[in-house]
């Protein structure tokens, strides 16, 4: 299997250094933990060992499953704090699950995180997803990226990568393709367009700003007006994204939409703050001032951090139901949004099971790194939130990767529009043996994007 941060970290190395916008993190490196232990700096240790030691001491305090961490753990046996964070995942025992549930604790260089968290990318701007075990498609294209400049579109099939025509869901193949797509400075592709013609394109990585909003429009389904938005990430410049939300929902309201479809199929999360903002536009008026979610920390830090967030209704939409299009890589803040709205609306999911990440973290500075040990779980008003195995859709529908965004004949969008007009979903698919390969492959491809629910916090004692 591919490490859950391998290509994410490698692709970050391609980026130019830029200032973080939209999130205030932490700059000090002096640490003192006010819980049951204190961090003692060993002046004789190497800088790397000191950073690893600090990462381990923080994990013993703030990690959600700290009580399962063994006293025999040796942080100095690991190459860097990211390796320490990956190692502690093995001890994330959760009732009802036989395997460790944490796949996400990680560490990253502060300069790299500054780029990623503010939406600055340095790759080709190409998302890829398996349509079938031997059919790899372009799932989305970032509008300001090299891929967009080259004219590449969602739905194009990848025939070869750097002359290699082997396309399948085997680990070695996915690793090779992921490296070529997300971690290389230049890669040659052979694409097949929907009309059957082939085109060879060599892409060169460049710095660009990712665009969270890939499409918004309004359709007519029967007698109803239906809003549709493709929202691809909860990262980016927080203030800018909030302004886009305001404009978007003002437009939906002015057009008098009766239903709304939110397409989150490749949205793997980001800032909880932006999830909260979007939820406030979506919740019905009756939910105003009611509980949106509660963040629950371990018993050492619940008195510092346990937080209940309440809805503060924004905009004039007052819908009784909402449709979410989901896929294997719908994760974290996206799932948090769905879960937070369930007590207040008729929430319907169309597509495939979501990823399954009901937990989150915040960045803790450690030398020139940030460490992100999983630190809290989120539950909704009803105390629901243990969806480590994902959320099942109301209608199983294949990802219509053969069609571009907004095409009403695309399987998922078409299914929802049909439901709104006729009361039943169309394009229903069945679960098959091939789904295991496809889902596994797409989850591995998904590690190349940041996966998380990140909140702004200060660890007690950091000066």
For the structure shown, list the relevant keywords:
463 residues; alpha/beta; Pdz3 Domain; 2-enoyl-CoA Hydratase, Chain A, domain 1; six-stranded mixed beta sheet; four-stranded antiparallel beta sheet; 12 helices; 26% helix; 23% strand; globular
Walk me through what this model shows.
26% of the residues lie in helices and 23% in strands. The protein is of the alpha/beta class. The chain folds into 3 domains: 7-117, no CATH class; 123-206, Roll (Pdz3 Domain); 213-361 and 374-439, 2-enoyl-CoA Hydratase, Chain A, domain 1 (Alpha-Beta Complex), CATH 3.90.226. The strands form 7 sheets. It has a 6-stranded mixed sheet with strand order 9-10-11-15-16-21, sandwiched between helices. The chain starts with 5 loop residues before the first helix and ends in a 9-residue tail after the last strand. The model is unreliable at 1-44 (pLDDT under 50).
């Amino acid at each position: 299997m591919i490490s859950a941060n391998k290509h994410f970290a490698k692709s970050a190395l391609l980026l130019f250094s830029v200032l973080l916008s939209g999130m205030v993190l932490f700059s000090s490196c002096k640490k003192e933990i006010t819980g049951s232990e204190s961090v003692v700096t060993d002046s004789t240790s190497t800088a790397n060992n000191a950073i690893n030691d600090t990462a381990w001491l923080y994990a013993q305090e703030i990690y959600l499953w700290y009580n399962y961490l063994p006293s025999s753990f040796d942080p100095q046996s690991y190459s860097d704090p990211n390796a320490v964070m990956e190692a502690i995942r093995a001890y994330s025992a959760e009732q009802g699950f036989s395997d460790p549930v944490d796949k996400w604790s990680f560490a990253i260089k502060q300069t790299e995180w500054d780029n990623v968290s503010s939406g600055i990318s340095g790759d080709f701007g190409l998302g890829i997803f398996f349509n079938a075990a031997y059919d790899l498609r372009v799932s989305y294209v970032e509008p300001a990226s090299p891929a967009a400049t080259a004219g590449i579109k969602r739905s194009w099939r990848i025939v070869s990568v750097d002359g290699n025509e082997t396309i399948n869901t085997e680990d070695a193949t996915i690793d090779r393709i992921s490296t070529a797509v997300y971690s290389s400075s230049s890669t040659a592709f052979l694409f097949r367009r929907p009309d059957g013609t082939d085109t060879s394109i060599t892409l060169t990585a460049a710095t660009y700003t990712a665009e969270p909003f890939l499409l918004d429009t309004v359709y007519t389904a029967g007698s109803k007006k239906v809003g549709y938005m493709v929202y691809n990430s909860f990262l980016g410049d927080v203030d800018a994204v909030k302004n886009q939300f305001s404009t978007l929902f003002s437009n939906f309201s002015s057009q008098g939409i009766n239903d709304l479809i939110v397409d989150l199929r490749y949205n793997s999360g980001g800032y909880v703050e932006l999830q909260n903002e979007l939820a406030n536009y979506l919740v019905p008026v009756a939910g105003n001032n009611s509980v949106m979610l509660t963040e629950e920390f371990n018993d050492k830090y619940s008195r510092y951090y346990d937080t209940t967030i309440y809805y503060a209704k924004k905009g004039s939409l007052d819908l009784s139901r909402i449709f979410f299009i989901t896929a294997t890589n719908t994760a974290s803040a996206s799932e948090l949004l769905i879960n937070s709205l369930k007590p207040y609306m008729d929430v319907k999911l169309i597509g495939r099971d979501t990823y399954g990440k009901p937990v989150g973290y915040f960045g803790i500075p450690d030398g020139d790194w940030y460490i992100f040990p999983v630190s809290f779980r989120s539950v909704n008003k009803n105390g629901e939130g243990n969806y480590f195995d994902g959320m099942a859709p109301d209608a199983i529908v294949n990802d219509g990767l053969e069609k571009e965004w907004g095409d009403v004949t695309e399987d998922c969008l078409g299914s929802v529009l049909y439901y709104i007009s006729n009361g039943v979903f169309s394009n229903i698919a069945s679960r098959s043996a091939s789904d295991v390969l496809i889902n596994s492959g797409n989850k591995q491809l998904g590690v190349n994007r940041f996966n998380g629910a990140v909140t702004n916090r200060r660890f007690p004692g950091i000066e």
